[in-house]
Amino acid sequence: MPRAPRIIPISDLRQNASDVIKKVSSSRDPVFITQRGRAAAVMVSMEVYENSQHEMTILHLLARGEKEIASGLGYTLDDVLKEADRFLEAAKP
Fold first, then answer.
1. Quick one: DSSP state of residue 74?
2. How many of the other CB atoms lie within 10 Å of CB of 78?
3. What are the pLDDT digits (tens) for 28-41?
4. For 89, what's the count of Cα atoms within 13 Å in the CB-facing half-sphere?
5. Predicted confidence (pLDDT) per residue in 41-91, tens digit
6. Choosing a second label site near 44 at 20 to 30 A (CA), which of 33, 52, 61, 89?
7. The 3-state secondary structure of 10-41, one letter per residue
8. Ordered domains of the chain (ranges, CATH)
């Protein structure tokens, strides 16, 4: 069962910023910050942020590859594997 999201008003963040950051870093769960009763921001640990950025980069590359394939550009899997084999063979001492 998923946990309920942690939601705090911005005034609590101002008063307890250090504690909020410690909890975010240790739990890896996001904290939703509200301002005047509305969602204003989401705070996540640096590790979670870096992982999400890495995943976004991979998704962008996959989407670009899909577009290249659809437009007739790019390489076949056989060509890529042959090139990888040549690269690995050249890298051997």
1. S
2. 8
3. 899 999 999 999 99
4. 6
5. 999 999 999 999 999 999 999 899 888 888 888 777 888 889 889 988 887
6. 61
7. HHHHHHCHHHHHHHHHHHCCCEEEEECCEEEE
8. 6-44 (3.40.1620.10), 48-91 (no CATH)
Q: Quick one: CA dihedral 66, 72, 73, 78, positive or negative?
A: positive
Q: Are 9 and 35 in contact (CB under 8 A)?
A: yes
Q: What are 84's two structure tokens?
A: 């990888």
Strand partners, 35: 38
Cβ pair 34, 40 in contact under 8 A: yes
Contact 53, 46 (CB under 8 A): no
* Euclidean distance between CA atoms 55 and 86, whole angstroms: 28
